[in-house]
Automatic annotation (TrEMBL):
Xref: Pfam families: DUF1749
PANTHER family assigned: UPF0613 PROTEIN PB24D3.06C
InterPro entries reported for this sequence: AB_hydrolase_fold (IPR029058), SidJ (IPR013744)
Annotated protein name in UniProt: Serine aminopeptidase S33 domain-containing protein
Domain of life the protein comes from: Bacteria
C-alpha cells in the first residue's frame, strides 16, 4: 500500500469461526506495538477490501501510534457470500443470521489476542455498528477497552426514507408470508435477500433493532448494558438518517448512561461512507483512543 512517500505492509490473512466460517481480511501490524488493536467491522453487503482510502488512512495513523489494525469480512460480506460449513446455509448480507455476528467478532478478537494484542478497540460502521453493540451487550468481552459506533443508522428508518414507508410495510408483509411458505428469496424488488433476513433487518423491536431512534417508548436494552467507554461518530449529511445528526448524538446521550465515558462526534459535510472525509474520520477515531 503506497502513497507518495510511505509504503505500508499489509498482511492478507484468514481466520475461522467456531462454527466453521472462514473469514478473509487484512492485518496491518506496527513496528513497535502498544499492545492495542483496532478491529473494524464493515457494513451491510460490504467487505474487507472496500474503502481503500480509509484503509490507507487507518493503516498509517494506527502504525504511528503502535496500534494494530484488523479488517475482516464478516459472514455478512457482499449480498451472498458462500455457505457455513456445517449447515450449508448461505451467508452474505442478504442471508446471514444477525446474532451469529458474535462468532465472527469473537474470532477476530481471539486472533488479535493470539498475536499479543491484549487491548481491543472495536469499531463498527453502519450495520457493523449494530453488530459491535450487539456483541458487547451479549459478551461484555473484557478485551474490548473502547467501543466506537460509526454512522449508527437505523436500518428500518433508513429503508423507509430511501424506499418509502409503503415499500417497507409491504415488504414486511411479503416476508412474513414467504417465511410461512419456507420460500428462500424475497421478490427482486426487495434485493437479494431471504425473508428471514428482511424481517431481521426491518422489524421494530428485534435483536438487530439496536438503534430505535424513531420509537419513543423503546428501551435501548443493548446500549443500557454497555459499561465500556463509548464513542459515536455521525456523518452530518448521512443519506440514511431520518433526523439531524445532532439528534442521533442526543439519543445516545440520553441512553448511554452506564458507560464509563461517552463522546459524540459529528463529521461535517460527510456522507454515510465518509467519502472525501476519510482523514477527518481517522483523526477523530485516533483522538478517541490515543490514551489506551
Amino acid at each position: 500500500m503506497r502513497n507518495s512517500s510511505i509504503m505500508i505492509p499489509v498482511l492478507l490473512t484468514r481466520i475461522k469461526t467456531s462454527d466453521g466460517v472462514a473469514l478473509e481480511g487484512i492485518a496491518v501490524l506496527p513496528k513497535k506495538s502498544s499492545g492495542t488493536a483496532l478491529i473494524w467491522l464493515h457494513g451491510l453487503n460490504s467487505r474487507f477490501s472496500s474503502g481503500q482510502i480509509l484503509v490507507k488512512e487507518f493503516s498509517e495513523q494506527c502504525r504511528k501510534k503502535g496500534i494494530a489494525y484488523f479488517k475482516f469480512n464478516t459472514r455478512g460480506h457482499d449480498a451472498a457470500g458462500g455457505s457455513v460449513a456445517k449447515s450449508k446455509k448461505l451467508t452474505g448480507g442478504g442471508f446471514e443470521k444477525f446474532e451469529e455476528c458474535v462468532f465472527d467478532i469473537r474470532a477476530m478478537a481471539a486472533f488479535a489476542q493470539k498475536l499479543g494484542y491484549r487491548r481491543i478497540i472495536l469499531a463498527g460502521h453502519s450495520t457493523g455498528a449494530n453488530k459491535a453493540l450487539f456483541y458487547m451487550s451479549r459478551t461484555r468481552d473484557p478485551r474490548v477497552k473502547h467501543l466506537i459506533l460509526i454512522a449508527p443508522v437505523s436500518d428500518r428508518s433508513g429503508a423507509s426514507k430511501v424506499h418509502g414507508a409503503a415499500w417497507h410495510k409491504k415488504g414486511l408483509a411479503i416476508a412474513h408470508a414467504l417465511k410461512k411458505k419456507r420460500a428462500a428469496y424475497m421478490p427482486p424488488e426487495y434485493g437479494i435477500m431471504s425473508p428471514d433476513r428482511f424481517i431481521s433487518l426491518y422489524s421494530a423491536g428485534g435483536r438487530e433493532d439496536v438503534f430505535p431512534y424513531d420509537r419513543a417508548d423503546a428501551r435501548w436494552d443493548a446500549l443500557a448494558s454497555i459499561r465500556t467507554p463509548l464513542a459515536v461518530i455521525v456523518a452530518e449529511r448521512d443519506e440514511y438518517l431520518d433526523r439531524p445528526a445532532r439528534g442521533i448524538i442526543a439519543a445516545f446521550e440520553r441512553h448511554a448512561q452506564w458507560t464509563k465515558s461517552f463522546s459524540g462526534i459529528i463529521i461535517k459535510s460527510a456522507n454515510h461512507g465518509f467519502r472525501g472525509k476519510e482523514k477527518e474520520l481517522t483523526e477523530a477515531m485516533i483522538g478517541e483512543v490515543s490514551g489506551l
